[in-house]
């Protein structure tokens, strides 16, 4: 499942690069990538702070 998801992500991320020839397209691609990275970062922080993620640093040694 991870390989299929990763392959689909790489495929979808590579499509706009094939059509970006002028500087305006590259600017839109860069801004879109920064927005996507910001959303994913915020989601990661929310998941970590929600307490539902059982990370090793929260577990007490047994």
Would you kindly provide a written description of the structure presented here, covering whatever features stand out?
- The chain is mainly alpha-helical and 62 residues long.
- 73% of the residues lie in helices and 0% in strands.
- The chain is built from 2 helices and no strands.
- It has helices at residues 2-19, 23-49.
- The longest helix is centred in the middle third of the chain and has 27 residues, at 23-49.
- The mean pLDDT is 76.
- It is a single-pass membrane protein.
- Residues 1-20 form the signal peptide.
- It comes from Saguinus oedipus (Cotton-top tamarin).
- Keywords: Ion transport, Membrane, Signal, Transmembrane, Transmembrane helix, Transport.
Question: What is the secondary structure topology, with strand pairs?
Answer:
Elements (H helix, E strand, L loop, with lengths): L1 H18 L3 H27 L13
Defining key terms:
2 helices; single chain; 62 residues; 73% helix
Low-confidence stretches: none
Rg, rounded, reads 17 Å
Task: Identify the overall geometry.
Answer: elongated
Largest beta sheet, briefly?
none
Q: How would you concisely characterize the structure shown here?
A:
73% of the residues lie in helices and 0% in strands.
